[in-house]
User: Which sequence fits this backbone?
C-alpha cells in the first residue's frame, strides 16, 4: 500500500516519492496525508522509514539515486501566515464519558444568534498558531454559565482527549487534543456564592445581573453560605443586590458583515453599560420644531426601534471594527464617543457603511429597562459602486439615466425624491412624477416639487392645475432657489414636447419674472386667487388644511 506524489513536469525540478506502510502500522500515515497535515499546520515532519526517492532533478543537475534508499527525510513547509482575528458566538457540548468537547460556531447563522450562549475570539498569529479566548458574556442564564464553568474546570484538571470546532452546519473546522491547562481553572467565588444563594432562595431566579459593581462583587465574595442558609437571609441578600444595580442597561454587540452575501464575518459581545443611550442628542435637527418634538417624544417611548445609518470614509470596514472594539474597552462613555467618531468621519468617497440599531426596551428580573444596541459595520462594495455612479450622474444632471439607481435607493437619505420626481417628468412619466410630488409636499409643503408638479401638469395639458402649482411654489419658496431654473425647464420641455405656449403658460412665465423682481417674502403678498387676503391667510392655509386631512 502507498501513495505517489509528483510535481508539475513543467517546473524546474521534478521528483517522485513513494511511501509504504505495513498492515500493522497506523492508518493515515501515508506520505500524502502527512504532507497535507504539514502544509496545513505549518509544522515540520520527519520521516525515517521506507522512503524511496527516484528521478531527482533540480536546476538541471541530475543525481542518480535509483539504487539508494533515504534513511531520514525532513519536510519543512514554506508558509507565510497573515495574522488575522475573528470574533463569533458558539455553543458547547461536553461528553464527559469520552472526554470530548465540541464547540459549534454561529459563523453564518445570522438569524439565530440568540441561541448561541458564549463568545469566542480566534486569533491567527504570524507563526501559524491559532489562539482562542472565550467567555460566557452572551448569556445571563445560570445553567448555561454553570455549563461553561464546568468545561473550564475539566480543562484545568485533565484536559480533553479530543476537542472539535464545528460550523453551524456540523462541519468539522478543527480537531485536536486539548491538554491540561492550569490557567483555565475557574475560581470565581462571586459566581459560586451568588448561585448558592439563588438555589436556596424561595424565588425562582434563572439569571444573573447584567451590570454589577466591583463593590457588590466584593460583598458577595464575603458571604458565608452556611450562615445565610441557617438564618434564611437569601431573599434579603437578593434585594440588597437589586438596590445597588443600575435600573437601566444597554447591551452592546458589534458585527462585521459582508452585505453582498449577507455573511457575518465577525460578531462580538462588547459588554453592558449601566445606562440607556440617548440618541436624541446625536440626531440632526430639522428646521421644523414641531417635527423635532415629535421625534424626541417617540424616542422616549419604550416600544420604539431606531436605526442610525452612516457611510464611512476614512478607513476600511475591517479597520473600523478594530478601532471601535479598542475604543469600547479603553474609554469612559464609550457609546457616545463611538457615535461621535462615526459622525465626524467624512470624505468624498465612501468605503463602507455602519448601522447602529436600538431595540425596543424590555425588562428582566434584575433591571427595569434593557436596550440592545447593535453596531453593524458593512463591507458593501457593490452598493458603493452604484452610489458613486448615481452621484456622478446627478452631478452631470443626467437625471433620466439615473432613474433606476434613484429608485433603488429612494428610501435612503442621500437620494433626493425631488430629483426623482423631476427625472420622471423629464422621462414623460407625468403621473408618476405628480404622485411623488404630492408625497414630498405632504412632508415638506415648501418643497420645489410644486414647480415639478406644475411642469408635469403643463405637459399633460392640465393648465389650470399647473398654474395653481406654480403659484404655490412662487409664494412659498425663496427665489434664489428657483430662478432662473424653473423658467428654463418650462421653456425647454415645452419645446421638446411640442406643447403650445398658450395664454396660461405665458401667464405662468410672467409671474415667474414678476416674483423674481420682488424682494419681499411671497407669503405676505396678496394671494394669486384675487381674494384680497395675504397668501399666508388664504391659499397657504387651504394647502395646509388639505395636507392635514390627507386630501392633497
Assistant:
Amino acid at each position: 500500500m502507498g501513495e505517489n506524489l509528483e510535481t508539475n513536469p513543467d517546473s524546474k525540478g521534478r521528483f517522485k516519492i513513494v511511501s509504504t506502510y505495513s498492515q500493522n502500522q497506523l492508518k493515515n500515515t501515508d506520505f500524502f496525508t502527512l504532507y497535507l497535515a504539514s502544509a496545513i499546520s505549518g509544522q515540520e515532519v520527519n520521516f525515517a522509514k521506507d522512503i524511496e526517492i527516484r528521478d531527482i532533478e533540480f536546476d538541471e543537475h541530475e543525481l542518480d539515486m535509483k539504487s539508494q534508499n533515504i534513511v531520514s527525510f525532513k519536510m519543512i513547509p514554506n508558509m507565510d501566515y497573515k495574522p488575522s482575528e475573528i470574533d463569533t458566538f458558539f455553543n458547547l457540548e461536553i461528553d464527559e464519558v469520552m472526554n470530548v468537547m465540541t464547540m459549534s460556531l454561529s459563523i453564518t447563522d445570522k438569524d439565530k444568534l440568540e441561541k448561541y450562549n458564549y463568545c469566542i475570539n480566534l486569533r491567527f498569529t504570524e507563526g501559524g498558531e491559532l489562539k482562542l479566548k472565550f467567555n460566557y458574556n452572551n448569556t445571563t442564564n445560570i445553567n448555561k454559565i454553570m455549563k461553561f464553568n464546568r468545561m473550564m474546570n475539566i480543562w484545568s484538571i485533565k484536559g480533553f482527549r479530543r476537542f472539535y470546532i464545528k460550523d453551524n452546519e456540523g462541519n468539522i473546522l478543527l480537531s485536536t487534543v486539548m491538554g491540561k491547562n492550569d490557567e483555565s481553572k475557574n475560581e470565581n467565588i462571586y459566581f459560586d456564592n451568588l448561585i448558592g444563594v439563588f438555589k436556596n432562595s424561595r424565588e425562582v431566579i434563572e439569571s444573573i445581573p447584567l451590570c454589577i459593581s466591583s463593590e457588590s462583587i466584593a460583598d458577595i465574595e464575603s458571604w458565608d453560605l452556611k450562615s445565610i442558609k441557617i438564618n434564611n437571609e437569601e431573599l434579603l441578600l437578593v434585594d440588597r443586590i437589586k438596590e445597588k444595580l443600575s435600573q437601566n442597561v444597554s447591551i452592546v454587540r458589534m458585527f462585521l458583515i459582508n452585505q453582498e452575501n449577507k455573511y457575518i464575518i465577525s460578531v462580538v459581545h462588547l459588554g453592558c453599560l449601566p445606562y440607556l443611550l440617548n440618541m436624541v442628542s446625536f440626531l440632526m435637527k430639522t428646521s421644523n420644531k414641531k417635527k423635532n418634538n415629535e421625534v424626541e417624544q417617540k424616542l422616549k417611548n419604550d416600544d420604539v426601534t431606531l436605526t442610525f445609518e452612516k457611510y464611512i470614509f476614512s478607513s476600511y470596514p475591517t479597520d473600523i471594527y478594530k478601532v471601535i472594539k479598542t475604543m469600547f474597552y479603553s474609554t469612559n462613555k464609550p457609546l457616545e464617543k463611538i457615535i461621535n467618531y462615526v459622525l465626524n468621519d467624512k470624505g468624498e468617497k465612501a468605503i463602507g457603511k455602519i448601522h447602529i440599531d436600538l431595540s425596543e426596551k424590555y425588562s428582566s428580573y434584575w433591571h427595569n429597562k434593557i436596550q440592545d444596541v447593535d453596531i453593524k459595520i458593512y463591507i458593501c462594495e457593490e452598493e458603493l459602486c452604484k452610489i458613486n455612479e448615481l452621484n456622478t450622474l446627478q452631478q452631470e444632471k443626467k437625471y433620466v439615466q439615473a432613474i433606476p439607481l434613484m429608485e433603488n435607493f429612494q428610501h435612503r437619505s442621500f437620494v433626493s425624491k425631488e430629483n426623482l420626481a423631476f427625472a420622471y417628468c423629464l422621462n414623460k412619466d407625468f403621473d408618476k412624477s405628480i404622485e411623488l410630488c404630492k408625497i414630498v409636499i405632504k412632508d415638506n409643503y415648501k418643497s420645489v416639487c410644486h414647480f415639478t408638479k406644475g411642469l408635469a401638469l403643463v405637459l399633460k395639458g392640465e393648465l389650470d392645475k399647473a398654474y395653481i402649482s406654480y403659484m404655490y411654489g412662487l409664494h412659498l419658496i425663496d427665489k434664489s432657489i428657483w430662478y432662473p431654473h424653473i423658467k428654463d425647464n418650462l421653456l425647454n420641455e415645452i419645446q421638446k414636447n411640442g406643447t403650445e405656449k398658450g395664454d396660461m403658460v405665458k401667464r405662468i412665465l410672467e409671474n415667474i419674472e414678476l416674483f423674481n423682481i420682488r424682494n419681499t417674502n411671497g407669503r405676505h403678498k396678496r394671494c394669486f386667487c384675487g381674494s384680497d387676503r395675504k397668501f399666508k391667510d388664504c391659499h397657504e392655509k387651504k394647502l395646509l388644511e388639505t395636507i392635514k386631512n390627507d386630501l392633497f
About this structure: The longest strand covers residues 84-95. Confidence is low (pLDDT under 50) at residues 1-15, 54-68. The two ends are 86 Å apart (CA to CA). The chain has 19 helices and 17 strands.
